[in-house]
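Thread: quick sanity check before group meeting

JM: Hey all, I'm pulling together slides for Thursday and realized we never actually wrote out the predicted structure for the chain we discussed last week. Dropping the sequence here so it's in one place. If anyone has concerns about the input, flag it before I start.
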Amino acid sequence: MKLTLYPLSADAPPVRPAAPRRQWMDETPESFAYRCLPLALANQHGWEVATPHGFTATWNGGNMPTDVLIEFDAPQAKSLSGAPLANFGSGVLTFELHFLLRTPPGWNIFVTGPMNGIKHGIAPLSGVIETDWSPYTFTMNWRFTAPDCPVRFEAGDAIAHFFPVSRDLFDKFEPELDHINRDPKTYEQFMQWRGSRQDFAKRLAEQEAEAVEEKWQKTYYRGLKPDGSPGAADHKIKLRVKPFTKPAH
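JM (edit): ok, ran it. Output follows.
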């Protein structure tokens, strides 16, 4: 399947495979946050858009567009593509992305902020766009969460993250509640995992050498069931998201 990006200006914001690392995760002791495979994979799950311009934005708490002050590192950046705007009011900071995306029939684009990215004083808003037919651009929006709290974006920081989703995804699923003991195999595996987790936590708390050396249970990370047998054959510990490239012709 093809995912096509059409830049609409010569200086459109750069789009790249989503970065696997986050500063706050790097700063955890021994970078332990990366041991959480679901967290690490989410970081890489798609593509991200970067801001070409460094700037600081502050909201004073009002509802008018003028209640957001944007101070650019380079004054000329204000008139360039990818510069943030405050045109909606209500403490919303907007990025015009200056490109169109085209997906195969039946596929949308989910756009949000950088996965597991954290900025004090502002939060990304999310959207879903029907990009298999729409000739319209879309924006990335963030909303300030606190007045008079300057928010800093460095040049190259991710401002948006996107990936395709099937439009009929939720038509295909029938949500159902059930008792886990009605699925004996899953119940047995769950109880085995819970027991091993409790045992490992106890041994780690007691500073048992083997547990201390292992640091954390790696069965899920390695794609193994609690008894050590293989899980899914296509289990992943890393995503290889391809960059956007020009066609050969």
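AS: nice. The helical segments are 23-26, 37-43, 184-205, 209-214. The domain at 4-167 is CATH 2.70.40.10 (Deoxyuridine 5'-Triphosphate Nucleotidohydrolase; Chain A).
JM: adding both to the slides.
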